[in-house]
Write a structure and sequence with these properties.
This protein is α+β, with helices and mostly antiparallel strands. It is built from 14 helices and 22 strands. The longest helix has 45 residues.
Length: 534
Protein backbone atom coordinates (compact mmCIF):
# COMPACT_ATOMS: atom_id res chain seq x y z
CA UNK A 1 0.00 0.00 0.00
CA UNK A 2 2.82 2.37 0.93
CA UNK A 3 4.59 1.53 -2.30
CA UNK A 4 1.48 2.55 -4.24
CA UNK A 5 1.23 5.88 -2.38
CA UNK A 6 4.90 6.64 -3.06
CA UNK A 7 4.33 5.72 -6.70
CA UNK A 8 1.42 8.14 -7.02
CA UNK A 9 3.36 10.94 -5.34
CA UNK A 10 6.33 10.34 -7.61
CA UNK A 11 4.09 10.45 -10.68
CA UNK A 12 2.48 13.76 -9.56
CA UNK A 13 5.95 15.21 -8.87
CA UNK A 14 7.11 14.29 -12.39
CA UNK A 15 3.97 15.89 -13.93
CA UNK A 16 4.58 19.14 -12.02
CA UNK A 17 8.24 19.26 -13.10
CA UNK A 18 7.30 18.70 -16.76
CA UNK A 19 4.54 21.33 -16.63
CA UNK A 20 6.94 23.89 -15.16
CA UNK A 21 9.52 23.13 -17.86
CA UNK A 22 6.94 23.53 -20.63
CA UNK A 23 5.83 26.87 -19.12
CA UNK A 24 9.41 28.20 -19.05
CA UNK A 25 10.08 27.16 -22.66
CA UNK A 26 6.79 28.72 -23.83
CA UNK A 27 7.48 31.96 -21.99
CA UNK A 28 10.97 32.14 -23.49
CA UNK A 29 9.62 31.58 -27.01
CA UNK A 30 6.91 34.22 -26.58
CA UNK A 31 9.47 36.72 -25.32
CA UNK A 32 11.72 35.99 -28.28
CA UNK A 33 8.83 36.36 -30.74
CA UNK A 34 7.83 39.66 -29.14
CA UNK A 35 11.38 40.94 -29.35
CA UNK A 36 11.59 39.83 -32.98
CA UNK A 37 8.32 41.60 -33.80
CA UNK A 38 9.45 44.76 -32.09
CA UNK A 39 12.75 44.55 -33.88
CA UNK A 40 11.03 44.06 -37.22
CA UNK A 41 8.79 47.05 -36.58
CA UNK A 42 11.77 49.17 -35.64
CA UNK A 43 13.65 48.07 -38.74
CA UNK A 44 10.62 48.78 -40.94
CA UNK A 45 10.36 52.30 -39.55
CA UNK A 46 14.06 52.88 -39.91
CA UNK A 47 13.99 51.71 -43.52
CA UNK A 48 11.53 54.42 -44.52
CA UNK A 49 13.69 56.95 -46.33
CA UNK A 50 13.29 60.49 -45.03
CA UNK A 51 15.06 62.46 -47.77
CA UNK A 52 13.41 63.70 -50.95
CA UNK A 53 15.07 65.09 -54.07
CA UNK A 54 13.29 67.58 -56.35
CA UNK A 55 14.52 69.54 -59.36
CA UNK A 56 14.25 72.84 -61.20
CA UNK A 57 15.39 73.60 -64.74
CA UNK A 58 16.27 77.15 -65.73
CA UNK A 59 16.45 78.25 -62.10
CA UNK A 60 16.39 82.01 -61.54
CA UNK A 61 15.77 82.59 -57.82
CA UNK A 62 14.24 80.82 -54.84
CA UNK A 63 12.44 84.04 -53.93
CA UNK A 64 8.84 83.04 -54.78
CA UNK A 65 7.66 86.58 -55.40
CA UNK A 66 10.15 87.53 -58.09
CA UNK A 67 10.67 84.18 -59.81
CA UNK A 68 9.35 83.70 -63.33
CA UNK A 69 9.78 79.93 -63.11
CA UNK A 70 6.70 77.72 -62.54
CA UNK A 71 8.87 74.93 -61.11
CA UNK A 72 10.12 77.30 -58.41
CA UNK A 73 6.52 78.20 -57.67
CA UNK A 74 5.74 74.49 -57.25
CA UNK A 75 8.58 73.56 -54.87
CA UNK A 76 8.30 76.69 -52.74
CA UNK A 77 4.88 75.45 -51.55
CA UNK A 78 6.96 73.43 -49.07
CA UNK A 79 8.86 76.52 -47.89
CA UNK A 80 6.76 79.69 -47.95
CA UNK A 81 3.19 80.37 -46.91
CA UNK A 82 0.38 82.64 -48.01
CA UNK A 83 -2.57 84.27 -46.28
CA UNK A 84 -4.86 81.48 -47.49
CA UNK A 85 -4.52 78.04 -49.04
CA UNK A 86 -6.72 76.28 -51.58
CA UNK A 87 -7.72 72.74 -50.62
CA UNK A 88 -7.67 69.85 -53.07
CA UNK A 89 -11.43 70.23 -53.63
CA UNK A 90 -11.18 73.97 -54.24
CA UNK A 91 -12.13 75.50 -50.88
CA UNK A 92 -10.32 78.48 -49.39
CA UNK A 93 -8.84 77.75 -45.96
CA UNK A 94 -6.88 79.97 -43.54
CA UNK A 95 -3.09 79.78 -43.49
CA UNK A 96 -1.29 82.87 -42.18
CA UNK A 97 -4.65 84.63 -42.08
CA UNK A 98 -7.04 83.62 -39.32
CA UNK A 99 -10.17 85.10 -40.89
CA UNK A 100 -11.36 87.78 -43.30
CA UNK A 101 -14.47 89.68 -44.30
CA UNK A 102 -15.62 92.15 -46.93
CA UNK A 103 -16.95 95.50 -45.77
CA UNK A 104 -18.01 96.53 -49.27
CA UNK A 105 -17.45 95.32 -52.83
CA UNK A 106 -13.80 96.35 -52.91
CA UNK A 107 -12.56 96.20 -49.30
CA UNK A 108 -11.28 93.18 -47.39
CA UNK A 109 -10.39 93.18 -43.69
CA UNK A 110 -7.88 90.40 -42.96
CA UNK A 111 -7.09 89.22 -39.44
CA UNK A 112 -3.79 87.35 -39.04
CA UNK A 113 -2.98 84.41 -36.79
CA UNK A 114 -0.98 85.31 -33.70
CA UNK A 115 2.22 83.73 -32.41
CA UNK A 116 3.57 82.76 -35.83
CA UNK A 117 7.35 82.93 -36.11
CA UNK A 118 9.75 83.13 -38.98
CA UNK A 119 12.39 80.42 -39.24
CA UNK A 120 14.93 82.75 -37.55
CA UNK A 121 12.67 83.08 -34.49
CA UNK A 122 11.33 86.58 -35.23
CA UNK A 123 7.58 87.16 -35.19
CA UNK A 124 5.33 87.44 -38.25
CA UNK A 125 3.13 90.55 -38.43
CA UNK A 126 1.05 92.84 -40.65
CA UNK A 127 4.24 94.61 -41.70
CA UNK A 128 5.35 91.50 -43.59
CA UNK A 129 2.10 91.30 -45.55
CA UNK A 130 2.18 94.98 -46.48
CA UNK A 131 5.87 94.73 -47.41
CA UNK A 132 5.17 91.82 -49.79
CA UNK A 133 2.14 93.45 -51.41
CA UNK A 134 3.95 96.77 -51.81
CA UNK A 135 6.83 95.02 -53.58
CA UNK A 136 4.39 93.42 -56.00
CA UNK A 137 2.50 96.65 -56.55
CA UNK A 138 5.33 99.17 -56.75
CA UNK A 139 8.25 97.39 -58.38
CA UNK A 140 8.22 97.30 -62.17
CA UNK A 141 9.92 93.92 -62.21
CA UNK A 142 6.83 92.38 -60.54
CA UNK A 143 4.79 92.69 -63.75
CA UNK A 144 6.39 89.50 -65.11
CA UNK A 145 6.42 87.53 -61.85
CA UNK A 146 4.33 84.36 -61.48
CA UNK A 147 2.01 86.02 -58.95
CA UNK A 148 1.44 89.20 -60.97
CA UNK A 149 -2.12 88.12 -61.79
CA UNK A 150 -2.94 87.80 -58.08
CA UNK A 151 -2.45 91.50 -57.42
CA UNK A 152 -3.65 92.79 -60.78
CA UNK A 153 -6.70 94.45 -59.20
CA UNK A 154 -5.20 95.16 -55.78
CA UNK A 155 -4.98 98.92 -55.24
CA UNK A 156 -3.48 99.34 -51.78
CA UNK A 157 -3.04 97.75 -48.35
CA UNK A 158 -3.24 99.52 -45.00
CA UNK A 159 -2.10 98.29 -41.59
CA UNK A 160 -4.83 98.59 -38.94
CA UNK A 161 -2.77 96.97 -36.19
CA UNK A 162 -0.07 94.33 -35.76
CA UNK A 163 -2.41 91.52 -36.82
CA UNK A 164 -5.03 93.30 -38.94
CA UNK A 165 -4.94 94.73 -42.47
CA UNK A 166 -7.26 96.46 -44.88
CA UNK A 167 -6.92 95.42 -48.53
CA UNK A 168 -8.55 97.70 -51.12
CA UNK A 169 -9.23 96.61 -54.70
CA UNK A 170 -9.48 98.81 -57.78
CA UNK A 171 -12.77 97.15 -58.73
CA UNK A 172 -15.12 94.44 -57.57
CA UNK A 173 -13.57 91.00 -58.07
CA UNK A 174 -15.74 88.00 -57.17
CA UNK A 175 -14.04 85.48 -54.86
CA UNK A 176 -10.96 87.68 -54.48
CA UNK A 177 -9.89 85.72 -51.39
CA UNK A 178 -8.71 83.01 -53.80
CA UNK A 179 -6.06 85.42 -55.07
CA UNK A 180 -4.53 85.87 -51.61
CA UNK A 181 -2.41 82.79 -52.26
CA UNK A 182 0.85 84.62 -53.00
CA UNK A 183 3.70 83.85 -50.54
CA UNK A 184 4.53 86.34 -47.79
CA UNK A 185 8.13 87.40 -47.17
CA UNK A 186 9.75 89.03 -44.13
CA UNK A 187 10.07 92.83 -44.07
CA UNK A 188 12.72 92.74 -41.31
CA UNK A 189 14.82 90.21 -43.20
CA UNK A 190 15.01 92.30 -46.37
CA UNK A 191 15.03 95.68 -44.67
CA UNK A 192 16.07 98.43 -47.09
CA UNK A 193 17.89 96.07 -49.49
CA UNK A 194 16.99 96.04 -53.17
CA UNK A 195 14.37 93.31 -53.11
CA UNK A 196 15.11 92.28 -56.69
CA UNK A 197 18.90 92.22 -56.46
CA UNK A 198 20.27 91.02 -53.14
CA UNK A 199 22.11 87.92 -51.97
CA UNK A 200 19.41 87.61 -49.31
CA UNK A 201 17.35 85.96 -52.03
CA UNK A 202 19.67 82.95 -51.78
CA UNK A 203 17.99 81.76 -48.58
CA UNK A 204 15.05 83.89 -47.38
CA UNK A 205 13.61 83.08 -43.98
CA UNK A 206 10.25 81.35 -44.00
CA UNK A 207 7.14 80.54 -41.97
CA UNK A 208 6.56 77.19 -43.75
CA UNK A 209 7.10 73.49 -43.06
CA UNK A 210 10.71 73.66 -44.28
CA UNK A 211 13.45 76.24 -44.04
CA UNK A 212 16.35 76.81 -46.41
CA UNK A 213 19.36 75.50 -44.51
CA UNK A 214 21.85 75.64 -47.41
CA UNK A 215 22.10 77.20 -50.85
CA UNK A 216 25.33 76.01 -52.39
CA UNK A 217 26.11 76.02 -56.09
CA UNK A 218 23.47 74.14 -58.04
CA UNK A 219 21.29 73.04 -55.16
CA UNK A 220 19.20 74.16 -52.21
CA UNK A 221 18.81 72.00 -49.11
CA UNK A 222 15.66 72.21 -47.00
CA UNK A 223 15.30 70.93 -43.45
CA UNK A 224 12.36 70.93 -41.05
CA UNK A 225 11.50 74.38 -39.72
CA UNK A 226 11.52 74.01 -35.93
CA UNK A 227 9.65 77.32 -35.61
CA UNK A 228 6.79 76.30 -37.89
CA UNK A 229 3.51 77.25 -36.24
CA UNK A 230 2.03 73.82 -37.09
CA UNK A 231 5.12 71.80 -36.12
CA UNK A 232 3.45 70.03 -33.18
CA UNK A 233 0.93 68.42 -35.52
CA UNK A 234 3.50 67.67 -38.23
CA UNK A 235 3.99 63.91 -38.43
CA UNK A 236 5.46 63.90 -41.94
CA UNK A 237 8.20 61.34 -42.60
CA UNK A 238 10.30 63.38 -45.03
CA UNK A 239 12.59 65.67 -43.02
CA UNK A 240 15.07 66.78 -45.68
CA UNK A 241 14.51 67.99 -49.24
CA UNK A 242 17.27 68.61 -51.76
CA UNK A 243 16.39 70.75 -54.78
CA UNK A 244 18.86 70.32 -57.65
CA UNK A 245 19.17 72.90 -60.43
CA UNK A 246 19.61 71.94 -64.09
CA UNK A 247 20.42 74.15 -67.02
CA UNK A 248 17.78 72.60 -69.29
CA UNK A 249 14.71 70.39 -69.15
CA UNK A 250 16.62 67.75 -71.12
CA UNK A 251 19.27 67.62 -68.40
CA UNK A 252 16.53 67.35 -65.77
CA UNK A 253 14.84 64.48 -67.63
CA UNK A 254 18.16 62.65 -67.87
CA UNK A 255 18.78 63.06 -64.12
CA UNK A 256 15.34 61.64 -63.38
CA UNK A 257 16.00 58.71 -65.69
CA UNK A 258 19.20 57.96 -63.77
CA UNK A 259 17.31 57.94 -60.48
CA UNK A 260 18.72 61.21 -59.14
CA UNK A 261 15.32 62.93 -58.79
CA UNK A 262 12.25 61.63 -56.96
CA UNK A 263 9.47 63.72 -58.54
CA UNK A 264 8.91 65.84 -61.63
CA UNK A 265 5.84 67.30 -63.32
CA UNK A 266 5.36 68.14 -66.98
CA UNK A 267 2.74 68.97 -69.61
CA UNK A 268 4.76 67.12 -72.23
CA UNK A 269 2.77 64.06 -73.31
CA UNK A 270 5.90 62.64 -74.96
CA UNK A 271 7.81 62.39 -71.67
CA UNK A 272 8.53 58.69 -72.27
CA UNK A 273 10.90 59.62 -75.07
CA UNK A 274 13.10 61.34 -72.49
CA UNK A 275 12.77 59.31 -69.28
CA UNK A 276 12.10 55.84 -70.67
CA UNK A 277 9.18 53.56 -69.93
CA UNK A 278 10.09 51.86 -66.64
CA UNK A 279 11.13 52.71 -63.10
CA UNK A 280 8.48 55.30 -62.29
CA UNK A 281 4.79 55.92 -61.59
CA UNK A 282 2.61 58.52 -63.31
CA UNK A 283 -0.36 60.43 -61.89
CA UNK A 284 -2.37 62.42 -64.44
CA UNK A 285 -3.97 65.59 -63.07
CA UNK A 286 -6.05 68.37 -64.61
CA UNK A 287 -4.35 71.55 -65.72
CA UNK A 288 -5.82 75.05 -66.05
CA UNK A 289 -6.46 75.16 -69.80
CA UNK A 290 -10.12 74.64 -70.65
CA UNK A 291 -10.89 74.02 -74.34
CA UNK A 292 -14.41 74.77 -75.58
CA UNK A 293 -16.58 75.98 -78.42
CA UNK A 294 -18.38 79.28 -77.89
CA UNK A 295 -21.67 79.27 -79.86
CA UNK A 296 -22.73 82.75 -80.86
CA UNK A 297 -26.31 83.17 -79.62
CA UNK A 298 -26.75 86.13 -81.98
CA UNK A 299 -25.89 84.01 -85.01
CA UNK A 300 -28.80 83.48 -87.43
CA UNK A 301 -28.67 79.71 -87.05
CA UNK A 302 -27.26 79.32 -83.54
CA UNK A 303 -29.79 81.69 -82.00
CA UNK A 304 -31.96 78.55 -82.06
CA UNK A 305 -31.25 76.59 -78.86
CA UNK A 306 -32.35 73.34 -80.55
CA UNK A 307 -29.51 73.66 -83.07
CA UNK A 308 -27.04 74.36 -80.24
CA UNK A 309 -28.25 71.24 -78.45
CA UNK A 310 -27.95 69.24 -81.66
CA UNK A 311 -24.28 70.28 -81.96
CA UNK A 312 -23.67 69.18 -78.38
CA UNK A 313 -25.01 65.72 -79.21
CA UNK A 314 -23.11 65.58 -82.52
CA UNK A 315 -19.60 65.99 -81.07
CA UNK A 316 -17.87 62.96 -79.59
CA UNK A 317 -15.51 64.42 -76.98
CA UNK A 318 -13.88 61.08 -76.24
CA UNK A 319 -12.72 60.90 -79.85
CA UNK A 320 -11.67 64.55 -79.96
CA UNK A 321 -9.36 64.32 -76.92
CA UNK A 322 -8.03 60.92 -78.00
CA UNK A 323 -7.31 61.77 -81.63
CA UNK A 324 -7.10 65.54 -82.08
CA UNK A 325 -5.40 66.11 -78.73
CA UNK A 326 -3.53 62.78 -78.89
CA UNK A 327 -4.63 61.90 -75.35
CA UNK A 328 -2.98 64.95 -73.78
CA UNK A 329 -6.35 66.31 -72.59
CA UNK A 330 -9.14 64.99 -70.40
CA UNK A 331 -12.62 65.42 -71.77
CA UNK A 332 -14.41 68.29 -70.03
CA UNK A 333 -17.86 69.81 -69.95
CA UNK A 334 -17.97 72.74 -67.51
CA UNK A 335 -15.34 75.41 -66.79
CA UNK A 336 -14.92 74.41 -63.13
CA UNK A 337 -12.37 71.64 -62.53
CA UNK A 338 -13.48 68.12 -61.67
CA UNK A 339 -13.99 67.29 -57.97
CA UNK A 340 -14.56 70.93 -57.04
CA UNK A 341 -16.67 71.16 -53.88
CA UNK A 342 -19.10 73.53 -55.62
CA UNK A 343 -20.29 71.08 -58.22
CA UNK A 344 -20.44 67.41 -59.12
CA UNK A 345 -19.69 67.38 -62.84
CA UNK A 346 -19.01 64.00 -64.39
CA UNK A 347 -17.72 65.56 -67.64
CA UNK A 348 -20.32 63.70 -69.64
CA UNK A 349 -19.77 63.13 -73.33
CA UNK A 350 -23.41 63.71 -74.44
CA UNK A 351 -22.60 62.19 -77.85
CA UNK A 352 -25.90 60.82 -79.19
CA UNK A 353 -26.69 61.02 -82.92
CA UNK A 354 -30.31 60.01 -82.36
CA UNK A 355 -30.85 63.00 -80.06
CA UNK A 356 -29.01 65.21 -82.53
CA UNK A 357 -31.45 64.25 -85.30
CA UNK A 358 -34.47 64.75 -83.05
CA UNK A 359 -33.38 68.24 -82.01
CA UNK A 360 -32.85 69.32 -85.63
CA UNK A 361 -36.17 67.86 -86.75
CA UNK A 362 -37.94 69.59 -83.85
CA UNK A 363 -36.55 72.86 -85.21
CA UNK A 364 -37.80 72.25 -88.76
CA UNK A 365 -34.64 70.82 -90.33
CA UNK A 366 -34.75 67.78 -92.59
CA UNK A 367 -32.03 65.51 -93.96
CA UNK A 368 -31.74 65.43 -97.76
CA UNK A 369 -28.84 64.78 -100.12
CA UNK A 370 -26.58 64.03 -97.14
CA UNK A 371 -27.16 67.50 -95.69
CA UNK A 372 -29.43 69.07 -93.12
CA UNK A 373 -31.68 71.57 -94.83
CA UNK A 374 -34.48 73.93 -93.93
CA UNK A 375 -37.00 75.89 -95.96
CA UNK A 376 -37.39 79.51 -94.89
CA UNK A 377 -39.59 81.95 -96.87
CA UNK A 378 -39.77 79.46 -99.74
CA UNK A 379 -35.98 79.27 -99.90
CA UNK A 380 -33.88 76.26 -98.98
CA UNK A 381 -30.80 76.74 -96.83
CA UNK A 382 -28.34 74.21 -95.54
CA UNK A 383 -26.98 73.89 -92.02
CA UNK A 384 -23.67 75.63 -92.59
CA UNK A 385 -21.57 77.37 -89.91
CA UNK A 386 -18.22 79.13 -89.78
CA UNK A 387 -15.71 78.21 -87.09
CA UNK A 388 -12.93 80.61 -86.13
CA UNK A 389 -9.71 79.07 -84.84
CA UNK A 390 -6.30 80.42 -83.92
CA UNK A 391 -3.77 78.93 -86.31
CA UNK A 392 -1.90 76.76 -83.82
CA UNK A 393 -1.25 73.05 -84.22
CA UNK A 394 -3.41 71.63 -81.43
CA UNK A 395 -6.34 73.91 -82.08
CA UNK A 396 -6.34 73.47 -85.85
CA UNK A 397 -6.32 69.69 -85.36
CA UNK A 398 -9.35 69.95 -83.08
CA UNK A 399 -11.20 72.26 -85.47
CA UNK A 400 -10.45 70.03 -88.47
CA UNK A 401 -11.49 66.90 -86.61
CA UNK A 402 -14.79 68.51 -85.57
CA UNK A 403 -15.35 69.67 -89.16
CA UNK A 404 -14.72 66.16 -90.49
CA UNK A 405 -17.07 64.45 -88.03
CA UNK A 406 -19.89 66.98 -88.39
CA UNK A 407 -19.65 66.66 -92.17
CA UNK A 408 -20.37 62.95 -91.73
CA UNK A 409 -23.58 64.00 -89.94
CA UNK A 410 -24.59 66.43 -92.70
CA UNK A 411 -23.48 69.65 -90.97
CA UNK A 412 -21.14 71.87 -92.99
CA UNK A 413 -18.34 73.67 -91.12
CA UNK A 414 -16.15 76.32 -92.74
CA UNK A 415 -12.95 76.88 -90.76
CA UNK A 416 -11.50 80.39 -90.61
CA UNK A 417 -7.81 80.17 -89.70
CA UNK A 418 -6.49 83.32 -88.00
CA UNK A 419 -3.32 84.85 -86.62
CA UNK A 420 -3.30 85.95 -82.98
CA UNK A 421 -4.22 89.52 -83.93
CA UNK A 422 -6.99 88.44 -86.30
CA UNK A 423 -8.35 86.06 -83.68
CA UNK A 424 -8.60 88.89 -81.17
CA UNK A 425 -10.45 91.03 -83.69
CA UNK A 426 -13.04 88.29 -84.16
CA UNK A 427 -13.47 88.10 -80.39
CA UNK A 428 -13.95 91.85 -80.14
CA UNK A 429 -16.51 92.01 -82.96
CA UNK A 430 -18.17 88.63 -82.26
CA UNK A 431 -18.66 88.13 -86.01
CA UNK A 432 -18.58 84.34 -86.03
CA UNK A 433 -20.97 81.42 -85.62
CA UNK A 434 -18.55 79.46 -83.46
CA UNK A 435 -15.09 80.10 -82.09
CA UNK A 436 -12.72 77.48 -80.68
CA UNK A 437 -11.25 78.81 -77.44
CA UNK A 438 -8.75 77.71 -74.86
CA UNK A 439 -9.02 79.70 -71.67
CA UNK A 440 -6.57 79.52 -68.78
CA UNK A 441 -9.04 79.57 -65.94
CA UNK A 442 -8.20 81.55 -62.79
CA UNK A 443 -7.70 79.86 -59.45
CA UNK A 444 -11.05 81.26 -58.29
CA UNK A 445 -14.43 79.78 -59.32
CA UNK A 446 -15.58 83.06 -60.86
CA UNK A 447 -17.62 82.37 -64.03
CA UNK A 448 -18.28 85.98 -65.03
CA UNK A 449 -16.31 85.60 -68.26
CA UNK A 450 -18.72 82.83 -69.34
CA UNK A 451 -22.05 84.27 -68.17
CA UNK A 452 -21.44 88.01 -67.67
CA UNK A 453 -21.66 90.90 -70.08
CA UNK A 454 -19.55 90.69 -73.24
CA UNK A 455 -19.06 86.93 -73.01
CA UNK A 456 -17.77 84.97 -76.00
CA UNK A 457 -21.16 83.40 -76.78
CA UNK A 458 -23.17 86.64 -76.68
CA UNK A 459 -25.21 84.73 -74.12
CA UNK A 460 -27.72 86.94 -72.35
CA UNK A 461 -29.53 85.21 -69.52
CA UNK A 462 -31.06 87.28 -66.72
CA UNK A 463 -31.19 84.39 -64.27
CA UNK A 464 -27.48 83.63 -64.77
CA UNK A 465 -26.57 87.28 -64.22
CA UNK A 466 -28.69 87.37 -61.07
CA UNK A 467 -26.90 84.31 -59.73
CA UNK A 468 -23.49 85.83 -60.45
CA UNK A 469 -24.51 88.93 -58.53
CA UNK A 470 -25.78 86.86 -55.58
CA UNK A 471 -22.52 84.94 -55.42
CA UNK A 472 -20.68 88.19 -54.69
CA UNK A 473 -22.16 88.27 -51.19
CA UNK A 474 -22.84 84.60 -50.34
CA UNK A 475 -20.27 82.96 -48.05
CA UNK A 476 -22.26 79.91 -46.95
CA UNK A 477 -20.85 76.88 -48.77
CA UNK A 478 -24.20 75.14 -49.24
CA UNK A 479 -25.77 78.30 -50.65
CA UNK A 480 -22.84 78.68 -53.02
CA UNK A 481 -23.29 75.08 -54.19
CA UNK A 482 -26.98 75.70 -54.79
CA UNK A 483 -26.23 78.72 -57.01
CA UNK A 484 -23.52 76.92 -58.99
CA UNK A 485 -25.91 74.02 -59.59
CA UNK A 486 -28.35 76.49 -61.16
CA UNK A 487 -25.60 77.93 -63.36
CA UNK A 488 -24.64 74.39 -64.37
CA UNK A 489 -28.24 73.60 -65.33
CA UNK A 490 -28.49 76.79 -67.40
CA UNK A 491 -25.18 75.94 -69.09
CA UNK A 492 -26.42 72.47 -70.08
CA UNK A 493 -29.95 73.45 -71.09
CA UNK A 494 -29.14 76.63 -73.05
CA UNK A 495 -25.79 75.40 -74.46
CA UNK A 496 -23.95 78.69 -74.91
CA UNK A 497 -20.75 76.64 -74.89
CA UNK A 498 -19.68 73.10 -75.65
CA UNK A 499 -16.87 72.01 -73.37
CA UNK A 500 -14.28 69.79 -75.04
CA UNK A 501 -11.25 69.16 -72.86
CA UNK A 502 -8.88 70.19 -70.10
CA UNK A 503 -5.13 69.76 -70.43
CA UNK A 504 -3.22 67.06 -68.55
CA UNK A 505 -0.28 67.53 -66.22
CA UNK A 506 1.83 64.43 -65.58
CA UNK A 507 3.18 64.07 -62.04
CA UNK A 508 5.93 61.47 -62.30
CA UNK A 509 7.55 59.83 -59.28
CA UNK A 510 10.36 57.31 -59.07
CA UNK A 511 9.16 53.84 -58.10
CA UNK A 512 10.83 54.00 -54.69
CA UNK A 513 8.82 57.05 -53.58
CA UNK A 514 5.80 55.79 -51.66
CA UNK A 515 2.61 57.43 -50.45
CA UNK A 516 -0.49 58.74 -52.19
CA UNK A 517 0.11 61.41 -54.81
CA UNK A 518 -2.80 63.84 -54.59
CA UNK A 519 -1.87 66.87 -56.65
CA UNK A 520 -3.52 69.84 -58.32
CA UNK A 521 -1.96 72.29 -60.76
CA UNK A 522 -1.66 74.81 -57.91
CA UNK A 523 -0.17 72.42 -55.33
CA UNK A 524 1.62 69.11 -55.92
CA UNK A 525 2.03 68.24 -52.24
CA UNK A 526 -1.39 67.65 -50.68
CA UNK A 527 -0.47 64.23 -49.24
CA UNK A 528 3.18 65.08 -48.59
CA UNK A 529 3.05 64.06 -44.93
CA UNK A 530 2.50 60.43 -45.95
CA UNK A 531 5.39 60.24 -48.43
CA UNK A 532 8.51 58.18 -47.78
CA UNK A 533 11.18 56.35 -49.75
CA UNK A 534 12.22 52.71 -49.59
Amino acid sequence: MKNNIFGYLFFIFIVIIMGFAIYKVSKSNNSENTNNAEGSSSIATAEKGTELTLAISGFDTINPIITKNKQVQDVTKLIFESLVNITSDGKVEPCLAKEWETTDNITYIVKLKTGIKWSDGSYFSSNDVKFTIDRLLQDKEAKNAVYAENIKHLKEVDIIDNTTLRIILSQKIPFYEYFLTFPILSSNYYGQDNFWDTNKNDAPITTGRFRISEHIGNKVILTKNENWWNAKEDNSIIDKVTINFYSSIAELYNAFRQGNIDLISTKNKDYKQYIGKIGYKVTEIEGRDFSFLALNNDSEILSDVQVRKALKYAINKDEVVAKAYSGSYFKANFPLPTNNYLLEDKNENYFDLGKMENKLKDSGWYFRKKQWQKTVNYKTKVLELNLVVRNKSNRTKVAEYIKEKLAEQGIIINIIYTSDDEYQKYINKKNYDMILCEMTNPISPDLTSYFGNGNLANFNNDEAKKILNELNSITDKEEQKSRFKKLYDIYNSEVPYIGIGRNKIYVITNSYLNGEIESKWYNLFFKFKDWYKN
